[in-house]
Specification:
Largest sheet of chain B: none
Number of strands of chain B: 0
Radius of gyration of chain B: 17 Å
Structural class of chain A: alpha+beta
Helix content of chain A: 10-25%
Oligomer: heterodimer
Distance between the termini of chain B: 44 Å
Shape of chain A: globular
Largest sheet of chain A: 7 strands, antiparallel
Strand content of chain A: 25-35%
Shape of chain B: globular
Number of helices of chain A: 7
């Protein structure tokens, strides 16, 4: 394998040494102590104000309850069952494979006025599949509010690895969805959905989960929500509930609106606490300060996603020029034809696409902390340590086969991945096609032919 | 990441949360300041001032930008104040041969770094600042980008190109 001339570990080490401080500063513990001491004077001022604020808040809340909600409607809020449990983890899947079976919900009030639902399967009903809202998310929040006719709450605390894509509106369910892309992976991301509900029967966000789902109650401010990790997987004509962490959902209700956050992506990203943070940061007015440099500003024109094959229109020479570092490509690639290349300036990743489902990625990195490729792992995949020349590599083989929150199947694949690091660059080969075509030995051979 | 944003929100009332932020950043802030002022006591003073400023205004932090970018903005403001008040010549160039005795002491211990010091002198102030933020402050690219109002990719690429140039210069010197 050739060497990448751009990054020199020795220089990195020298710079680290050059900027190091020796001896370690001894004043820091004292400064820490001093700063923490200051809290003893600071909260005292706030404590005086707190009872007054609390009283004012309570008065406002009482006025709102008395005047803004229908009398006799149990504090104005109809509680809905946020996650509805299906009768089994394994259910027959409609032969047309266009939508999951629909359940008719019948409601009854329990002894404590808590609504209870029983799920009755109606196999004859085959609802029309919903359009791919993710790809139709092209409205700004203001535009979506106008179409939907209600205020949309927007999170202000969204992790840096997510970039705003746009807002979609589902008129038949009266649901708005704000979409954020997981940077570098177009089909992964976060959806922030909102649906006004007038009664128990019309909550479309309150989707089915398998009986084995591990539903956790979480606190979102002063509201209790529910969190679940898992999804339905299509297998041999059945939809099977799997408690995996590729799809995480947080759902809660405030007054007459149900909110749902759905994250689809690597399990290491967006843990339940992260979802709660996003949920707690939702406000009705969009803040104006500086947008995150990684995110597309609300309503701004979208740049073509470099991780998509259809946008890969560069040659090897052009992509090298765009990236500013040496791009290596295999000279051995059996019956695979180069399609095009692309460069993602946000992650510094170069993509090389081949016609038959092979994608090669390359990212210069100084360590795990700044390696975007390394952040993506697949739970459930089979891992194996292998050698690529004299370098240790990791090979993964696994299955992606999911049903999205609307019940549509997607990403049915059996990708093989080979990933290794050489001379401060991380390389990856992803083969996502007929599993019998290329085996691990082929991938290693391809990797060893990088020039 | 978001944990820091969350900590920053909690730090308004919670000394432990502020303490955790302090533990994460104090050495980085000190290293960065030291790389600018090259004087131990001055670096200690400015570090203390910067953290006191951060403590006083923590409730003004908005989790739209990374916390580190916010903290380093405060720090850079404090450093600028220092240079405005003092003789502008206080900001020593990266030229260690003209440095204070303290710096020269360091050079004796780090002879292998003399070439690097000489080459750093040839960089622009903006380029040196990128290196200070990356290597002295040990900031992530995305945080540097937020601080300098650039895209993370642009920062990452600029630093890699800078290192490449620096390496070439040092190789030429070796020849």
């Amino acid at each position: 394998m050739t060497k990448n001339k751009n990054l020199d570990p020795k220089l990195n080490e020298q710079l680290n040494k050059y900027y190091d401080v020796d001896p370690r500063p001894g004043f820091l513990p004292e400064l820490r102590h001093d700063l923490q001491d200051r809290y003893t004077t600071r909260p005292a001022m706030r404590l005086k104000l707190r009872p007054a604020l609390a009283l004012a808040g309570a008065m406002i809340a009482l006025v709102l309850v008395l005047f803004a909600t229908p009398v006799g409607d149990a504090l104005g809020q109809v509680l809905v069952e946020l996650f509805q449990t299906a009768e089994d983890d394994v259910l027959p899947y409609p032969p047309a494979q266009t939508a999951i079976a629909e359940y008719t919900m019948t409601a009854a009030l329990g002894p404590t006025n808590t609504p209870m639902f029983t799920a009755t399967k109606t196999p004859d009903v085959t609802p029309t599949p919903e359009p791919g809202y993710l790809f139709a998310a092209n409205m700004t929040v203001d535009e979506a509010e106008q179409v939907a006719g209600f205020d949309i709450l927007v999170p202000v605390d969204v992790p840096e690895y997510l970039a705003f894509r746009g807002v979609a509106y589902q008129p038949e369910d009266n649901i708005t969805r704000i979409y954020y892309d997981l940077i570098g992976r177009r089909t992964n991301g976060l959806s922030v959905a909102q649906e006004p509900v007038t009664g128990m029967e019309d909550c479309d966000l309150c989707a089915d989960i398998g009986p084995s789902a591990d539903v956790k109650e979480v606190q979102i401010g002063d509201v209790t929500g529910q969190y679940v990790a898992g999804t339905w997987i299509l297998e041999d004509g059945y939809q099977i509930w799997k408690n995996n962490h590729w799809l995480k959902r947080l759902i809660w209700q405030t007054d007459d609106t149900v909110f749902e956050l759905t994250f689809f992506g690597p399990p290491s990203r967006m843990l339940s606490k992260d979802l709660v943070e996003v949920a707690e940061s939702m406000v009705s007015e969009i803040p104006q300060p500086t947008p995150s440099p990684t995110a597309t500003p609300l309503g701004a024109a979208e740049t073509p996603d470099p991780s998509l094959k259809e946008n890969a229109n560069l040659t090897l020479e052009e992509v090298e020029q765009a990236a500013g570092f040496d791009v290596l490509a295999p000279i051995y690639h059996p019956e695979l034809h180069f399609y095009g290349a692309n460069f993602d300036p946000n992650t510094n990743i170069v993509y090389l696409f081949y016609e038959e489902g092979m994608i090669l990625r390359q990212e210069p990195t100084t360590g795990l902390s700044d390696c975007d490729i390394c952040a993506e792992v697949r739970k459930g995949a089979t891992y194996r340590d292998v050698q690529v020349g004299d370098v240790e590599a990791q090979y993964a083989f696994g299955v992606w086969n999911y049903v999205d929150p609307e019940g549509l199947p997607f990403a049915v694949a059996q990708p093989k991945q080979l990933r290794w690091q050489d001379n401060n660059t991380v390389y990856e080969i992803l083969y996502d096609n007929d599993p019998s075509d290329l085996n691990i030995e082929d991938l290693i051979k391809i990797a060893e032919s990088y020039r | 990441m978001t944990t820091e944003k969350s900590l920053a929100r909690k730090a308004v009332r919670n000394p432990d949360a502020f303490g955790e932020l302090f533990d994460r950043y104090s050495l980085k802030i000190y290293r960065y300041i030291y790389s600018r002022v090259h004087h131990r006591e001055t670096a200690e003073d400015i570090t203390s001032q910067a953290f006191r400023d951060a403590f006083e205004s923590i409730d003004q932090y908005r989790p739209i930008a990374p916390f580190s970018a916010w903290l380093f903005t405060i720090t850079r403001r404090r450093i600028a104040d220092h240079f405005r008040r003092a003789n502008p010549a206080d900001e020593l160039p990266e030229d260690l041969s003209q440095g204070s005795p303290e710096i020269l002491d360091g050079v004796v211990q780090r002879e292998d770094l003399q070439d690097l010091a000489v080459q750093l002198r040839t960089l622009t102030e903006e380029e040196r600042e990128m290196l200070r933020l990356r290597f002295a402050a040990q900031m992530r690219y995305k945080d540097i980008a937020a601080l300098l109002e650039k895209s993370p990719g642009a920062v990452k690429m600029a630093i890699y190109r800078l290192l490449d140039r620096l390496k070439e210069k040092m190789e030429k010197t070796d020849d």
